[in-house]
């Protein structure tokens, strides 16, 4: 698969987002199915594996990832995050996101950062985290202080590269002045534009961008007609019945364009993203080996400039029902 650079870290253009493998997000998941899916991703070359200490209860996702990659650790670029799975007895600050959970609580105080990393290493059964992110900036802690503590993890060999997730351009600049940031992980997809200032700052500083939910939490595949039990998207305005139907109708021109190109809507969504910048990579999630193969194949697609123009034209006419929040 084509590779790309996130700062000094080389990764495949399409990685794998493991969040989908833990319960509490996309409904229940069978453990054996989850392990099969992750193996399929590694076999397909999606060896940049993205997890977090907050996915699933008690480090479920990290432990699952750790178990599966154990035999193939050297092939894998292992990325995880901290700040949302707050240790008992510690306070968290509310972070103003609207999607799905009501509120997120964050604690990225520097005095907790080493403990977070050590807990993740134990969950993962690993000696080192290749790319370690602050999952969300802590509203009460200057980002420079959080990153200062992360820099000590790099110095002491627990972490190879520093990442930040869900940050602004100003936060990226402030953090990068303390320690080089390899990657910023923010939501970016056909129905969720990236912040233009953040993209400009990342380009200027040589920081890579990891696009989360690059398939719009499944919407952009065209395959989401109704939601099963325990699916977090029930709480997301864009997926509520009337909105979902309207969004699916309005998205028809993009699906038709994919069909004309002989690729799937998921492949068009991923390939389009990779064409936005040479330092963007995508980490789609899937439990279905056939989808994983389809997604990874999108890394090698080259879209003609006319195709990109047609996509942008269709996107500019695509009015999303359900507001700006997921
Ligand atoms: N930093 C953050 O704050 C943050 C937040 C959210 C997510 N993330 C990261 O981003 C990763 C990806 O996000 P995500 O999983 O929520 O959203 P996503 O990748 O946009 O979409 C995942 C959904 O798409 C479906 N899908 C995938 N490929 C498909 C295909 N080819 N055809 C049809 N359906 C397909 C999956 O179902 P199937 O299982 O049926 O394929 C799943 O329901 C996460 O794993 C996580 O690592 C980070």
From TrEMBL:
Task: Provide the NADP-dependent oxidoreductase domain boundaries.
Answer: 14-314
Keyword Oxidoreductase assigned: yes
List residues traversing the bilayer: none
Family matches, as InterPro entries: Aldo-Keto_reductase, NAD(P)_OxRdtase_dom_sf, NADP_OxRdtase_dom
Looking at the UniProt record for this protein, which Gene Ontology cellular component terms does it annotate, in alphabetical order?
Answer: cytoplasm
Which UniProt key words apply to this protein?
Oxidoreductase
Name one molecular function that GO assigns to this entry.
Answer: oxidoreductase activity
* Annotated PANTHER family: AFLATOXIN B1 ALDEHYDE REDUCTASE, ALDO-KETO REDUCTASE YAKC [NADP(+)]
Task: Please identify the protein, giving its name as recorded.
Answer: Aldo/keto reductase
């Amino acid at each position: 698969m084509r590779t790309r650079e996130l700062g000094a870290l080389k990764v495949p253009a399409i990685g794998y987002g493991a969040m989908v493998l833990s319960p509490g997000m996309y409904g229940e998941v069978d453990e054996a199915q989850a392990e099969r899916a992750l193996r399929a991703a590694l076999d397909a070359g999606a060896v940049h594996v993205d997890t977090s200490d907050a996915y699933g209860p008690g480090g479920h996702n990290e432990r699952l990832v750790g178990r599966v990659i154990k035999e193939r650790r050297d092939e894998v670029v292992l990325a995880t995050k901290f700040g949302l799975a707050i240790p008992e007895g510690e306070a968290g600050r509310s972070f103003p996101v609207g999607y799905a959970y009501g509120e997120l609580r964050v604690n990225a105080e520097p005095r907790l950062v080493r403990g977070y990393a050590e807990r993740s290493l134990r969950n993962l059964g690993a000696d080192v985290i290749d790319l370690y992110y602050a999952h969300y900036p802590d509203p009460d802690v200057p980002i420079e202080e959080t990153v200062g503590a992360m820099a000590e993890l790099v110095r002491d060999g627990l972490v190879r590269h520093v990442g930040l997730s869900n940050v602004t351009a100003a936060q990226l600049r402030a953090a990068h002045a303390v320690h080089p940031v390899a990657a910023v992980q923010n939501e970016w997809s056909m129905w969720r534009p990236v912040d233009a200032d953040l993209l400009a700052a990342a380009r200027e500083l040589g920081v890579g961008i990891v696009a989360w939910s690059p398939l719009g939490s499944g919407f952009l595949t065209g395959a989401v007609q109704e939601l099963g039990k325990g699916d977090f998207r029930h709480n997301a305005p864009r997926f509520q019945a009337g909105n979902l139907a309207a969004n699916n109708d309005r998205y028809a021109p993009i699906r038709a364009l994919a069909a004309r190109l002989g690729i799937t809507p998921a492949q068009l969504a991923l390939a389009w993203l990779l064409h936005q910048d040479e330092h963007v990579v995508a980490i789609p999630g899937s439990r279905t080996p056939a989808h994983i193969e389809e997604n990874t194949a999108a890394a090698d697609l080259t879209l003609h400039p006319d195709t990109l123009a047609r996509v942008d034209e269709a996107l500019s006419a695509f009015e999303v029902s359900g507001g700006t929040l997921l």
